[in-house]
Design a protein that fits this description.
mainly alpha, Fic-like fold, Arc Repressor Mutant, subunit A, 2 domains, two-stranded antiparallel ribbon, 14 helices, 5 strands
């Protein structure tokens, strides 16, 4: 049976799409440094890997996730949690390779994404890359109550084929909405024994990327879900309560992406202002050492004398003179009650 998503374009959806397009336009036009974009892309990958696995029950902290993805050892970290985290990067690499190839989304690609996400995790009970042959259930982890019974295993191949056919078709649906629809429909089908949530979120990201909505790969949609877990589950459940009308889910999805993109845009605007300040400082004759100090405080947003000393490895008195000069020349502002105040810090005048 042909897949035809049912939804209505509400004012909430329209407003969210407008915000997303505004952020997309900013990122396309903004003169952001290559180094900053590269740094933020790495950070986005860490955040997405951490939050998408955290939603599914891993217990790693963000700091632990960052270290593991940097190739460092984290004593005491659960091996399965570690594997799930590293698997996400492996699956994301697959998505990147796919985009470079220009190939369409296929069932084989979705299965390979799933395979990479769950390979070697918890005894491979998720049967990597294979559609389930048994009935599975979505259970409330706190109460043990069944909250959703997915379609029977016999229906899975046909439903997945229909989803992929729709994604390949000229359906005329806005790319952002297509991404949200793909995410929900894969969760609805629940084609795998485990790992459906992670697979659906990466499929959603893939849909955005392939339609030119990669936003320089700076957004982390799973962070929004993880921060708003109850509304996330309620939005998914709303579809099943409304005869598979996806409208409520799409409102949540679009608002989530709009929120993430607004945060990225705000960071980008701050970076542009910082670059302007550094150029102005160079033109004003600020030398390399105080310029490095100013750059550090601009990047951090603020900094204490102790933090500057620890990071820049400069003599304390030298730093005090440089900080005073940057205050006197109008590049920094001193915030605190006096020279002996340990909480005193310096912030940029953007």
């Amino acid at each position: 049976m042909k897949f035809t998503p049912k939804f209505t374009i509400t004012n909430t959806i329209t407003a969210g799409l407008t915000k997303i397009e505004r952020a997309r336009g900013f990122l396309d036009a903004a003169k952001l440094s290559v180094d900053w974009i590269s740094e933020m892309q790495k950070r986005a990958l860490v955040l997405e890997a951490h939050h998408t696995t955290h939603i599914e029950g891993t217990h790693l902290t963000l700091e632990q996730s960052e270290k593991l993805l940097a190739g460092k050892k984290v004593p005491g970290a659960d091996p399965n949690d570690t594997r799930e985290l590293l698997n996400y990067r492996n699956a994301f690499d697959l998505v990147t390779e796919y985009l470079d190839s220009g190939e369409p989304i296929t069932e084989g690609l979705v299965r390979e994404i799933h395979k990479r996400l769950v390979k070697g995790v918890r005894g491979e009970k998720a049967d990597p890359g294979t559609y389930r042959k048994v009935q599975n259930y979505v259970v409330n982890s706190k109460t043990g109550q069944v909250v959703y019974t997915p379609p029977s295993p016999q229906d899975v191949p046909g439903m997945m084929a229909n989803l992929v056919t729709w994604l390949k078709s000229e359906h005329g649906v806005n790319p952002v909405l297509e991404s949200g629809i793909a995410q929900f429909q894969l969760v609805h089908i629940h084609p795998f024994i485990d790992g459906n949530g992670r697979t659906s979120r990466l499929l959603s990201t893939l849909c955005l990327y392939r339609k030119g909505y990669d936003f320089k790969r700076l957004f982390t949609i799973s962070e929004y879900y993880d921060r708003n877990r109850e509304p996330f589950y309620k939005a998914l459940q709303s579809v099943r309560k409304n005869d598979l009308d996806i409208t409520c889910w799409l409102e949540y999805f679009v608002e989530g992406l709009a929120t993430q993109m607004r945060e990225v845009q705000e960071l980008g605007q701050i970076v542009i202002k910082r670059d302007v300040v550094l150029v102005k400082a160079r033109k004003a004759g600020i030398k390399d050492r105080p310029l490095a100090l100013l750059s550090f405080i601009l990047k951090q947003g603020k900094g204490t004398l102790t933090e500057c000393e620890a990071t820049l490895k400069e003599n304390r008195r030298t730093l005090q003179r440089d900080l005073k000069m940057l205050v006197d020349t109008g590049f920094l502002r001193e915030v605190g009650s006096g020279p002996t105040d340990p909480t005193k810090f310096y912030e940029p005048l953007l």
